[in-house]
Amino acid sequence: MDNMQPNIGRLKNDIEKISTFIDRSKLGHTRRGFTKEYKEARVWLRGKMEETGLETSIDAAANIIGKLKGSDKNLKPIIIGSHTDTVENGGMYDGTIGVLGGIEVVRTLKEKGITLRHPLEIVDFTSEEPSEFGLSTIGSKGMIGELSEEMLQRKDSLGRVLSDAIDDLGGNCSELKKRARKKGDAALYLELHNELGPVLDNKKIPLGVVTGIVGIHRYKVLVEGESNHAGTTPMNMRYDALAFTSELILKLQGLCRGKNSDDVVGTVGKLSVEPNASNVIPGKCEFEFEIRALQNEVIDELANKFIQEAEELSRKRNIKIKFDNISKSSSVIIDENIKKVLKENCDKVAKTVHLPSGAGHDANHIYEIAPVGMIFVPSKDGRSHCPEEYTSYEEIELGVEALINSLLAFDKNLD
Ligand code: GLV
Ligand code: MN
Ligand code: MN
Hints:
The chain is of the alpha/beta class. The protein contains 13 helices and 13 strands.
């Protein structure tokens, strides 16, 4: 096979360009889904796809799709995708290298005069990170018809309704069900991503083939105690919602640690306190927790146990508690053949290991309609979802080259 090295200078320019569409009042790179910066980045991205010779469109879930024709009209498309939204105060690589790396794949193929048998779609999935609507992976859920009416009616803090926000990006929520892709509508889904964890950087190995992706269950919890004077209320006469919430946070940590397995994790990352004043006992807390694991049964078991123990404790403390499940995404075990082809083709480019993904991805949902495969490049010091997130351009280059090699191998052998 020819040398399939991409043009990393060109890709670097694109990564740096999209990184200018950010909210500069925040730290690091902040391009939250549905914001002004996000919309501007999408307009630029669509133009970039067009300039690359892709035929672009926006589907019902507002995903941006750039299509390249294949030589065999009977074949279903291979999809390469990721996302361009970020967490708040996030990094520059999470998601962007997958989408822009996909465009670089197309440019490299064109330069080499290669036409694939399969049609190829480069997809920028709508709002992958947890959004202000309390939902993540909105575009990939939408693409396969998994955005329920209840989800579409969720509101953000400004009172905006999710379905309106999707339509405002160019989607069409009234057509989501009709246009949903079904099993077999794609031949394969591939995603290049930074690891977002420490494994590759610790081992000093530049490429990883993902073996499985964790499932994630998220809940919103409302805790209601009683606000009162922080000076005059004795310790044994308090119904302190924040003190109780703190007990719950530690309980969640204990339950997840108790599983003694690196993939099993639980986090409370979002919390609000009312009235949030130094001399008032907190009367109300609202928080979100998530549990992740490679086995869905483990997540269910831990979530049920946590809820049951929290409810018992709330009765003891005389504090009200209410749980609402806000999302459940299932874990994925990558098919043996996909792993094998990816490993062979990554090995040709650089040293490669197998590893699981502790981060969720759009692949969790696309797996419902097609086999999926993911290639990881290192995250320096295992840092991600923070301004310090870093992957070198040399590592990104290896990742894109491995992606091209793998794509060509799948294109040849998949039907
Ligand atoms: C996606 O970045 C996640 O939260 O795993
Ligand atoms: Mn992320
Ligand atoms: Mn991501």
